[in-house]
Amino acid sequence: MSDRTPYAKQVLAGQSIEMPSWAFGNSGTRFKVFAQQGVPRDPYEKLADAAQVHKYTGAAGSVALHIPWDKVEDYADLARHAADLNVRIGTINSNTFQDDDYMLGSVCHPDAKVRRKAVDHLLECVDIMDATGAADLKLWFADGTNYPGQDSISGRQDRLAESLAEVCARLGDHQRLLLEYKLFEPSFYTTDVPDWGTAYAHCLKLGPKAHVVIDTGHHAPGVNIEFIVAFLLREGKLGGFDFNSRFYADDDLMVGAADPFQLFRILHELTLQDVLLPDSGIAYMLDQCHNIEPKIPGQIRSIMNVQEATAKALLVDHDALAAAQQAGDVLGANAVLMDAYNTDVRPLLAEVRAEKGLAADPMAAYAASGYAEEIKAARVGGAQAGWGA
Ligand code: LRH
Ligand code: MN
Ligand code: MN
Fold it and tell me: For the Xylose isomerase-like TIM barrel domain, which residue ranges apply (predicted)?
């Protein structure tokens, strides 16, 4: 059996998962947004909280912004603030779903004036990428219809393609468009980008700057997400992940909480292609809201869950796996995977952290730091993450 530990430690030490700025604000369901004490009052404070997650995990060096939830006067200044805190601004996420104008859609809307407004917003997001140095524009559209006959399904695809082409043409050489798909919600009859196949077809037409992003919570129950990962990787069209957990739909719960085995299986496919490090062209992000749990520890736990799944995937003995597969040894091949999955990787991760000068237990180190008490005392009237704002 080959010893994968040194390689695993090297990859784990270099791994970085992006945090969503919206994880730090108040959030909830459509029934209730729960206000927590000490939440950030502006994007500057969201970055300060995110920096705490990086401080204790050493594996969360960037923060995704959501525009206009994170609108500021001076984005270059916000980027400098991030750098001072030892994090950087990552993906820019657009928002074409919270204006009254978007009731019937945004880039797929039947009215050209509304489409213009939506595309202009996406172009503004590219300006913000220029100002912050962000490389990726992440697009999720709430577009779709609720009733048969409400709009032309193919006409909406034409409008989508035209809008995306205009945005893609505006991107600089080092910038990418990441297109997110989602099975349903808020539209219930048709969704204009409902699945990876639709996203892939659009990205293929858009050319080399367009890639598909997989939000793990955006599939029907039972969908084999690792198959999608393997397929898109093979085609060079996997742009990144929005990691989260789902029990029923788009639950946005902590990644690895509902189904850590699924997360392991996804990371196994990524490990096979050796694309875990930041220069791999895959953007690894969390897309979560912490409705009932404290937010900074919620992010720390999520990063640790990704690290644990990654460590297990890195321990899979690829030589033994290939040999068993070649020999048609079904049970042997499966056992190679299960042996790795059933390994307790927490001591290995503690070693990786110690070698980086970090505490073995990031949750305990953060709790002992007193930061939570500090922000509760200092911040009154924190802001909502954006949902329902
Ligand atoms: C909506 C959504 C989507 C986006 C995020 C900002 O489904 O969760 O996944 O990435 O909002
Ligand atoms: Mn998402
Ligand atoms: Mn979602």
Answer: 73-275
pTM given for the model: 0.97
- In the chain, where does DSSP find H-type helix? 5-14, 43-57, 75-84, 112-132, 153-170, 196-206, 225-234, 260-272, 295-314, 318-326, 330-341, 346-355, 362-369, 371-378
Going from the Cα of 181 to the center of ligand 1, the distance in angstroms, rounded, reads 9
Closest ligand 1 atom to Cα of 250: 7
Ligand nearest to the CA of residue 193, numbered in listed order: 1
Alpha carbon of 296 to ligand 2 centroid (Å): 19
Q: What is the pLDDT of residue 234?
A: 98
**CA 186 – ligand 3 centroid, Å:** 10
Write down the residue that tokens 């978007």 correspond to: 102
Structural domain boundaries of the chain?
Answer: 15-313+370-379
Closest C-alpha to 89, from 74, 68, 75: 75
270 touches 264 (CB < 8 A): no
- Whole-number Cα distances in Å, 321 to 20, 256, 260, 324, 330: 36, 24, 21, 5, 10
Beta bridge partners of residue 26, listed in sequence order: 384
Q: What is the largest CA-CA distance in the chain?
A: 64
ipTM greater than cut 0.90: yes
Q: What is the pLDDT of residues 59-112, one digit of tens each?
A: 999 999 999 999 999 999 999 999 999 999 999 999 999 999 999 999 999 999
CATH number of 15-313+370-379: 3.20.20.150
Distance CA 350, CA 362 (A): 9
**Ligand 1 atom with minimal separation from the 217 CA:** 9
